[in-house]
Amino acid sequence: MEESEPYEDLINPLPTVPFGGSPPPLHQYKGFWFRKQTIQGLLATHDHFVPLPTDVLLCSFQKTGTTWLKSLLFSIINRHLKDSLLSINPHFLIPSLELTMYTDGKPQSPLFIEKTSSSCRILSTHLPYQLLPPSVKDSDCKIVYITRNPKDFIVSFWHFMVSNKHHHPVSLEEAVDGICTGVLPGGPYFNHVLGYWKERLEGPSKRVFFLTYEDLKRNTAGHVRRLGEFLGCPFGVDDENEVDEIVRICSFDTMRNVEVNKDEKLLGAMGKSISLVPFSLKSLFRKGEVGDHENYLSQEMIECIDKVAKEKLSGSGLNLG
Ligand code: A3P
């Protein structure tokens, strides 16, 4: 007898659309589009994850600066361990709820997290605020959200899809269509951003730290200090060297040149959980610039994204450029 897939009774009846002209399709779950594996992870997270009040949750849409922010949060909280980033990929130091901790529809054994000695757990998720487990929404854990100019995001996303052997490639036109219609993995992009933005404005004060890739680029050291304060581990006036060292270790140039981040053959040394990570770590460090969309998007594509951004973000007080 064939073994049933996790949560198949819930997932099979969901509306489904193809994405990028080849399988697997996207399924619509409570207003958002996901691959089947993500919904399995989401549902398992809802069923099993127990947040601690001291947890720090890094939330983001994919390709908006997650890897960079993981490095920064890890080294801000575990200052004495920041050199770990020179030998371990940030995704192994900070696991994702739905992609690594509860993948396959069930809890997985911990990754590298047990090797850190921080006073709090740092976890990440690409889930929208609207679909975080109620246990997380009701907890005191802190949320750090990063977002990005939607045009740079879509260019980064498209490169990721075409360069990654674990994904079926999509054309740039299909990717742009996805951000404009909302139908792309994890989308609608703007609903994701607005969920966290609304919580930042209306939720308990000091619960959500909301930042953009562009602001982080403009003043990385300033944000390292602000994040330290937000997380309850502030830097003193004399800690300038410490802050600069964190900025340096987490910088694009340092991270891209770390052996383990650039050579896929070394990944085998990172532990048995590698098979659970559905992407190549190498492809996470591409260009690391603001405004790269100008090199790829036609005027028509730019106008389409700008129009949707204006409509969606109107009245929110948020401008993503
Ligand atoms: P580009 O494709 O524009 O270069 P994520 O980590 O959410 O997948 O986001 C990936 C994007 O962040 C990629 O953008 C990647 O190059 C960039 N990135 C990764 N590490 C970075 C770092 N240390 N500093 C700045 N940008 C970084």
Automatic annotation (TrEMBL):
Record InterPro entries: P-loop_NTPase, Sulfotransferase_dom
EC number(s) recorded for this UniProt protein: 2.8.2.-
Positions in coiled-coil regions: none
Residue intervals of the Sulfotransferase domain: 53-317
Cited SUPFAM superfamilies: P-loop containing nucleoside triphosphate hydrolases
Keywords assigned: Transferase
Top EC class, one word: transferase
Family: Belongs to the sulfotransferase 1 family.
PANTHER family: SULFOTRANSFERASE SULT
Protein's name according to its UniProt entry: Sulfotransferase
